[in-house]
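name: query_chain
kind: protein
chains: 1
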Amino acid sequence: MEARVQAVLAALRVHASAKTLAEMGPRYGIVVDKAMGVPMAKMQAVAGPLGRDAALAQALWDTGWYEARMVACMVDDPAMVTPERMEAWRADFDNWGIVDTVCFKLWDQVPHAPAKVEAWASLNDEFGRRAAFALLACLALHGGADEAFFIRGLALIEGAATDERNFVKKGVNWALRAIGGKKSPALRAAARDTAARLAAAMDKTARWNGRDALRAFAKADAAKGKAA
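structure:
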């Protein structure tokens, strides 16, 4: 396994860019201790031939390298992901890029995901709480739960809408917009009702969440009207 991990790290280093590394923090808000500066497309290219391999995924994750962890979530096997492993990875989250990629590429395919959304929504650490709402958004986008779950998700969104921390705020907003884009008329209406309440709130962060979502919904509705 160590040889396989070193081979992946070597493949990543081939694509390392000093420019990409220098831009990660200032341009993208990704601040990490161990990074090489590999563009996303190159990380995906390295991951592609590896297939699904849960053991390799965990070994790559354990290296602590940002790029290795990104590859890890691309090669992990959703069927092998346990609630305990989700908790362990979540505890390691230190930037929004890895949070969102793990949720988008892996965790929204895991049966335990809805329960983790509801558990993590009340966390105090910024990236743990973002994970709750990024995962909620990804489940909405990829159809990973039933309507009742998303109704509960809107309540979680409303409860977290005053959290002014940037990465939480944007995760909450993403989840609200994702639920509002569902095909279900009931969910679309409920998301718009939630956004309207938030837009009228006294809290400035809640207002931003509501108004931004309402603008997104109006734009999407206008586009559909033109298409019809």
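note: Residues 82-228 form a domain with the Leucine-rich Repeat Variant fold (CATH 1.25.10).
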